[in-house]
Amino acid sequence: MNCLLKLKTVNALALSVVRASETRNQNRWIAVAAIWLSMAGGPSNANADDVVLQNATATFSQTAFGGQPVGEAIDGILSNNDGWAIFDTVSGTNPQTAVFETVIDTGSPGGVNLEFQLHQLFTITAIEHNIGRFRLSVTADDRSEFADGLASGGDVTANWTVLTPYCALSTGGAALSVLGDGSILASGPNPSTSVYNIFAFAPFGDITGFRLEVLDDSSLPTNGPGRAFNGNFVLTEFLVNTFDVLLGDVNGDCVVSLLDVAPFVSLVTSGGFQAEGDINGDGVVNLLDVSPFVELLTN
User: What is the pLDDT of residues 156-203, one digit of tens each?
Assistant: First the structure.
């Protein structure tokens, strides 16, 4: 973030602390000093752990126009011509399923918070290639029982548990709505590129795989599952992270933004506790959390 925008952010937080601490002169000036000192920088949010995926498998992958196999969704390449697509020159587009194994078992026995990132960066044509409707699931089945690595006609059968997202966000302005069956439907603006960030809790650990179903819907072109004119999409990259809490997300909307300033200031000035506000992880929310909180805001 540029220095001017960072300065404006720090100013906004400083003003909030001042207003919240008007009856506590000493705390007020200490807080303001801490915020200004925070411009020197602090630790970033290292709370999330990447989940390494393997053996991408799908019921169908596009072979036309050079091919877009499902393995390209986990190859780490964020190129605009890379990714999984499903257009068939004979039957068009239809609901399909992709599954991915975890390299190591993921999550603890009591469950785990997951963040899914669906990067859709295809810009070879002027057509928007975003996913229109999809659903995410997890399994703890033995890896030998699913995901044979085939790009089409692959084994996607397992004991899947559908996740119910508690946050569904997108870049570019599309609205993501969580439906009753756990699926997510995109509507509104259809930007040229978009990243979907989906947050969900898996009720068990030792996760061995993830399932991505792309589904049809009457609101989508040719019923989808993509938002391109022919119902197609290109999933450039499918990423998964695990985390305990979203540090800095004090208001619970899955985004660290200026909307978190007021509740964070309230925690600092009142001595209250919330895990999302304990940025430095010392078990309390106080002035020592101000600098890393500002760093989260400005990164």
Answer: 999 999 999 999 999 999 999 999 999 999 999 999 999 999 999 999
Q: Amino acid identity, residue 90?
A: V
For the chain, what percent of residues have pLDDT higher than 90? 72
Two tokens, residue 224: 């989808």
Q: Give how far Cα 8 sits from Cα of 2, 43, 59, 297, Å.
A: 10, 20, 50, 11
The pTM assigned to this predicted structure is 0.82
298 Rama sector, left if φ>0, alpha if ψ -120 to 50, beta otherwise: alpha
| pLDDT, tens digit (0-9, with 9 covering 90-100), for 216-266 | 999 999 999 999 999 999 999 999 999 988 899 999 999 898 899 999 999
Measured between alpha carbons, how far is residue 191 from residues 171, 186, 233, 269, 277 in Å? Answer: 8, 11, 12, 41, 33
Q: Is 283 left (phi over 0), alpha (psi -120 to 50) or beta?
A: left
**Cβ atoms < 10 Å from Cβ of 175:** 11
What's the pLDDT at 47?
61
| The token pair that represents 233 in the structure block | 């999409």
